[in-house]
UniProtKB/TrEMBL annotation:
InterPro entries: Glutaredoxin-like, Thioredoxin-like_sf. This is Thioredoxin. It comes from Halorubrum saccharovorum. Pfam families: Glrx-like.
Length: 90
């Protein structure tokens, strides 16, 4: 991968928990939209229960999604808004 390709990869972080159906839907939406737009993403699924500080901060507020380091979505990922955020970040 060239340096230019790496710069175009958009980091997406999803704070999640086990057995979180909304988290699965969020992940599928993110993967589908990025594939549809042909925007490379670096998807990081973070289980908040594995870190007491994250569990305290996000706890029931999952999925909590960061796009390019910025808070983007809580609970549900809006497909149209995600498209705009990924395009802006890529």
């Amino acid at each position: 991968m060239s340096e230019m390709d790496a710069a175009e990869t958009v980091p997406v972080t999803v704070y999640t928990r086990e057995d979180c159906s909304l988290c699965e839907v969020a992940r599928e939406t993110i993967e589908e939209v990025s594939a549809d737009l042909d925007v490379a993403i670096d998807l990081d699924m973070v289980d908040v229960d594995e870190d007491p500080e994250l569990a305290e901060e996000y706890g029931e507020r999952v999925p909590y999604v960061l796009v390019d380091g910025h808070p983007a979505f809580k609970y549900e990922v809006d497909e149209r808004e995600l498209r705009l955020k990924l395009l802006a970040a890529s």
